TrEMBL record:
Name by which UniProt lists this protein: Methylmalonyl-CoA carboxyltransferase
Organism lineage: Bacteria, Bacillati, Actinomycetota, Actinomycetes, Kitasatosporales
Location of the CoA carboxyltransferase C-terminal domain: 270-518
GO cellular component, one term: acetyl-CoA carboxylase complex
Keywords: Transferase
CoA carboxyltransferase N-terminal domain segment(s): 10-266
UniProt xrefs under InterPro entries: AccD/PCCB, AcCoA_carboxyl_beta, ClpP/crotonase-like_dom_sf, COA_CT_C, COA_CT_N
Pfam family membership, one: Carboxyl_trans
PANTHER family listed in its UniProt record: PROPIONYL-COA CARBOXYLASE BETA CHAIN, PROPIONYL-COA CARBOXYLASE BETA CHAIN, MITOCHONDRIAL
């Protein structure tokens, strides 16, 4: 038989290469994909295809295999080692991604698996591009022992190094238990899908053994638990397709790294559009409730905004949106929940969001309608002083353009904390319905005039008279403006045009913090 020609030999090798790549994509067990779909879950490659622009994915190390021995591992050496890594584009911009492949070792992390993740994380940091992790793994690969645990350490170290440098997004699409849960916790945003996502440090079996409590996996660490009770998850959706579409939308609002500005977009919504409806949305009576999200919808381009942590600490609203095509972060008290009061959860939620926006050059617009901090023994004992100070620290430390608008109430320390002029807001505005004061007139009159009220023949009439006197002297809409604590009192209908002009003026703002290694924020 004549020897093969060079062309034939190369063709054989190319067929061998394609066979290996097909095996890497399909997996060694043809039924594994069926089992994944039977659980209502997509495969890692299917998820990546939904996340990235069509045909843009370039895989890294698809033929990687582990070198571990013992416990039968030497006989099981599948390609990819249970994680798909690479890069592609979202709306034309580079994004790096890794996705656990639950079909292989249950997505469990071993040494080679971890090294692939380390490599793609290093590439993302070096390239200055966002990193998205699609999590669906059973934790550390027990058969590889401490080598697997060390792999997690390398991931955590890189999460921390990338913090504030590139956007990091975790998408929970399966179980995430034990130490594995700390990587998502170190990233900027966590997305979760109902019924298939679970996160916990110790699972239901351990909880039952230690405490005697019986609870399901979803009851302990399901998507809705972390979106509403713990605050671990920022976004939750009913299915993977919607979830990954929303990840794409979030990426469209974020810069690729901390050296770039967020991407702008053309808007058909005129920057000088008047908001006549605002006069009806916000009642002049400070005791009446309303939904601040309706106000945000009226102020931003096309009424479109992405609310962060919508189900957790709903008394404050944090959202990303655009005004005149430019991305802004919005922090707003929510009178429809707990009257918009600040408490521990709201303070921590707002602080993290402010810090994120500052890290990635996203201007801040703060809408203020706050009656104060929530009083109560539980709040004091659980640390409202140090935990409320987190929001104060975040605003004081922020160097991005900052605009605050007082819509109605702004009382006491909560007024100061909500980006007042005194802590560094670049532009402080107020509506003519504003009440900026140490406290409400009713409470103030009871304190300041308690003796006169007690000695009066008609205490209630005296009290009402003193309330009105206090309002006339200290709580009228122009008191702060007269003292330069508010730059202007504006017609509510002109809020969007005023914000658009102010943001344009502040676009070139430059501010430096004192030279230091890092600050020491309240804990």
């Amino acid at each position: 038989m004549p020897p093969a020609t060079t062309t034939e030999a190369l063709a054989d090798r190319l067929r061998g290469l394609q066979e290996r790549k097909d095996l890497a994509r399909l997996g060694a067990d043809p039924k594994a994909t069926e089992r994944q779909h039977a659980k209502g879950k997509l495969t890692a490659h299917e998820r990546i295809a939904l996340l990235l622009d069509k045909g843009s994915f370039s895989e890294v190390e698809p033929l990687r295999r582990h070198r571990a021995t013992g416990f039968g591992l030497e006989a099981r050496r599948p390609y990819t080692d249970g994680v798909i890594t690479g890069w592609g584009t979202v709306e034309g911009r580079t994004v790096f991604v890794y996705a656990h492949d639950f079909r292989i070792f249950g997505g469990a992390l071993g040494e080679a698996h971890a090294q692939k993740i380390h490599k793609i994380m290093d590439m993302a940091i070096a390239a200055g591009a966002p990193l998205v992790s699609l999590n669906d793994g059973a934790g550390a690969r027990i058969q590889e022992g401490v080598s697997a645990l060390a792999g997690y350490g390398g991931i955590f170290q890189r999460n921390s190094r990338a913090s504030g440098v590139i956007p990091q997004i975790s998408v929970m699409l399966g179980p995430c238990a034990g130490g594995a849960a700390y990587s998502p916790a170190l990233t900027d945003f966590i997305f979760a899908v109902r019924d298939i996502s679970q996160m916990f440090i110790t699972g239901p079996d351990v909880v039952k053994a230690v405490t005697g409590e019986e609870i399901s996996q979803n009851g302990l660490g399901g998507a809705d638990v972390h979106a509403g009770a713990s605050g671990v998850a920022h976004f939750v959706y009913d299915d993977e397709e919607t979830c990954l579409a929303e990840v794409r939308y979030l990426l469209s609002l974020l810069p690729s790294n901390n050296r770039e500005l967020p991407p702008s977009a053309q808007s058909g919504d005129a920057a000088d559009r008047a908001g006549d409806v605002l006069l009806d949305l916000v009642p002049a009576d400070g005791n009446r409730s309303y939904d601040i999200r309706a106000v945000i919808e009226e102020l931003v381009d096309d009424g479109d905004f992405m609310e962060v942590h919508a189900a957790w600490a709903p008394n404050i609203v944090c959202a990303l949106a655009r005004i005149d095509g430019h991305v802004v972060g919005i922090v707003a008290n929510q009178p429809a929940s707990m009257a918009g009061v600040l408490d521990i959860k709201a303070s921590e939620k707002g602080a993290r969001f402010v810090q994120f926006c500052d890290a990635f050059s996203i201007p801040l617009v703060t809408l203020v309608d706050v009656p104060g901090f929530l009083p109560g023994v539980d709040q004091e004992h659980e640390g409202i002083i140090r935990r409320g100070a987190k929001l104060l620290y975040a605003y004081c430390n922020a160097t991005v353009p900052r605009i605050s608008v007082v819509l109605r109430k702004a009382y006491g320390g909560a007024y100061i904390v909500m980006d007042s002029r005194s802590i560094g807001a670049d532009i402080a505005l107020a509506w003519p319905t504003n009440e900026i004061a140490v406290m409400g007139a009713e409470g103030a009159a009871n304190v300041v005039f308690r003796r006169e009220i007690a000695a009066a023949d008609d205490p209630e009439a005296m009290r009402n008279s003193k309330i009105e006197e206090y309002k006339q002297e200290l709580v009228h809409p122009y008191y702060a403006a007269e003292r330069g604590l508010v730059d202007d009192v504006i017609d509510p209908r002109e809020t969007r045009p005023v914000l658009s002009r102010a943001l344009a003026m502040l676009a070139t703002k430059h501010a430096d913090l004192p030279r230091r290694k890092h600050g020491n924020p309240p804990q």
